[in-house]
Amino acid sequence: MAGIKHGAPEVPTPLRVMIYFESTSGWFNTTGEEKTNDILPALNEIIASWKENGSELLGTIDRDILTAGPSGSAGYHACFLYNIPDLQTIADMTHAFRATGLDKYFRLEAVLGRPFFLLEN
After folding, report:
1. What's the whole-number mean pLDDT along residues 101-107?
2. Which residues of 102-115 are buried (b: 16+ CB within 10 A; e: fewer)?
3. For residue 72, is pLDDT > 90?
4. Domains in the chain, ordered, with CATH?
């Protein structure tokens, strides 16, 4: 069977980005009080700031229905799908975790792609 011939994929504007989110051992080794009083408020503040940077949240997936504990081979606990205006904004979003120390508790990985042509036109 011959493949479909087409040119190089076009980089979309805005960028389509999947952000993988994983809790690390730092999160699992932290007390409930520290999580409630310090970590979760800082996490909520960062995620709220993403609403102000021109990014559009399209959807989320939390894998906790059929999983518990460390993320295992999948490497993430949740996914956030965004339209994001530019590459610098993605870098700023991930850097916010480093700048606040949240990278001790959570790992982020951004994957750049585009809408799948057979499902989104």
Report:
1. 96
2. bbbbbbbebeeeee
3. no
4. 15-113 (3.30.70.60)
